[in-house]
From TrEMBL:
Source organism per UniProt: Photobacterium sanguinicancri
Matching InterPro entries: YjbR (IPR007351), YjbR-like_sf (IPR038056), YjbR/MT2646/Rv2570-like (IPR058532)
UniProt name for this protein: MmcQ/YjbR family DNA-binding protein
Length: 121
């Protein structure tokens, strides 16, 4: 996945906003909270950071092309960096970005979730 594909995918998720910050990283937010970061990984290739569930964090930490996200993981946060792109892992990445969006949106206040039309049953 390249940055254009990543940005197009994140843009299509509900109630997202985009900003370039933290050393020219492509940062996506929902309700003002970060759910995905696109920046440079090993060998200056695109790498993507996202929030995960505890279970996915432990699973992905040991998978090829994934590692605990620099800065976040060292502070006890469950964020993973995906740094090897292929057709198969790009499909996985889309799943994990969607899950990150969901996890972060569930942490927003109920009022904000309602205002953004998120997680409504």
């Amino acid at each position: 996945m390249n940055y254009d594909q990543y940005n197009a995918f994140c843009r299509a998720l509900p109630a997202t906003t985009y900003v370039v910050q933290w050393n020219n990283s492509h940062v996506w937010k929902v309700g003002g909270k970060v759910f995905a970061i696109g920046g440079l990984g090993p060998d200056d290739k695109p790498a993507f950071i996202f929030k995960t569930s505890d279970q996915n964090y432990h699973y992905l930490s040991d998978q090829p092309g994934y590692k605990p996200a620099p800065y976040f993981a060292s502070r006890g946060m469950k964020w993973i960096q995906h740094f090897v792109s292929s057709a198969a892992t790009d499909e996985e990445l889309m799943y994990y970005l969607t899950e990150s969006h969901r996890i972060v949106s569930l942490g927003l206040t109920k009022k904000l979730q309602k205002d953004l039309n998120l997680n409504q049953v």
